[in-house]
Write a structure and sequence with these properties.
single chain; 104 residues; mainly alpha; two-stranded antiparallel ribbon; 5 helices
């Protein structure tokens, strides 16, 4: 945002303009801003879900319709399948085994 400056305040205006531009560029280039920006991997709910599905072991929730006329349903995440995916991580599996005295 440029503003009119008199000759007596020209230096201060230039410094302030440069500082504002610098702050704006730093904010745009910050990794969080890039990730959450329109073109980033988290730029929309759809993009975020797709990212997590491809980068992590994702267990899809299961939905059961109880009453379609009243639009009643419930969802749950399958616990056994979730644990299987979590325990494929060797570090997590080893910690679980250690805490249960199944590994030394």
């Amino acid at each position: 945002m440029r503003r009119e400056c008199s000759s007596s305040t020209m230096y201060n205006c230039a410094v302030e303009d440069i500082a504002n531009e610098l702050v704006e560029e730093l904010c745009k280039s910050h990794p969080t801003s890039k990730a959450l920006g329109e073109d980033g991997p988290f730029g929309s709910v759809y993009k975020m879900r797709q990212y997590f599905k491809t980068q992590f072991e994702f267990v899809q929730p299961v939905e059961y319709i109880l009453d379609s006329q009243d639009n009643l349903s419930y969802q749950y995440v399958p616990l056994l399948q979730t644990l299987e995916h979590v325990l494929t991580n060797k570090n997590i599996a080893n910690e679980v085994l250690k805490k249960n005295n199944l590994i030394y």
